[in-house]
Amino acid sequence: MLLYLAAAGVGRLGIVEMDRVDLSNLQRQVLFDTPSIGTLKAEAAKARLQSLNPHVKVEVYPTKLSAANALEILEPYPLVVDCSDNFPTRYLVNDACVLLDKPLVYGAIHQFEGQLSVFHHQGGPCYRCLFPSPPPAGTVPSCAEAGVFGVLPGVVGSLMAAEAIKILLGLGTLLSGKLLLYEALEPRFRILRLARKADCPVCGENPSVTTLQDYELLCGVSV
User: Fold this and answer.
1) How far is the C-alpha of 114 from the C-alpha of 176, rounded, in Å?
2) pLDDT value at residue 147
3) What DSSP designation does 126 have?
4) Which of 36, 94, 122, 206 is deepest in the core (most CB within 10 A)?
5) Residue 129's Cα: distance from chain center in Å?
6) Percent of the chain having pLDDT more than 70?
7) 163, exposed or middle or buried, with CB in 10 Å at 0-12, 13-18, 19+?
8) What is the distance, to the nearest Å, from the Cα of residue 66 to the centroid of all Cα atoms in its chain?
9) pTM for the predicted model, two decimal places
């Protein structure tokens, strides 16, 4: 996703990532290479993107995104692209985007399937309109536990980049109010219609979520 945004000439990119490159990442992440192993992902990504397009300003945040820093980190950017692989971060990013009134390009992968949408864009639904609350601890396996088909991040990431560029340029029809599902084994694409929920806890008529909170304990994971 980042490679396509940089290649397209998006002038300013921010990367929030605290992890280091691991050998297992190379099976599905073409942004990194073998010499990158052990380095901070954010710094390795910055070097790769600036080698591709030196005119792009890449700002890195090698820290954990949390309720304490999310608004400050995300506020300067016109839109947010969520490539996270865990529910606590997804709910945190969604809530921050609603509070900041920013569109959110969302993508997720699991085994041989991927999904994609644009949330909170010009009155459209947000992530919580689809999934109101985080899942109980232990009910959803992590990527490490379930496994991921290596090409899925490339497929979904390319589609996410397309949606982000369309938002920035005001082009075409977006996936706002829609959930795009990709099944690699069939293969096939499907689109489900989504509606903004009046009782959504964050973007509804009487929201109960008005400040950010961290969801690690609710989801039973550490991020």
Assistant:
1) 17
2) 83
3) -
4) 94
5) 17
6) 93
7) buried
8) 15
9) 0.92
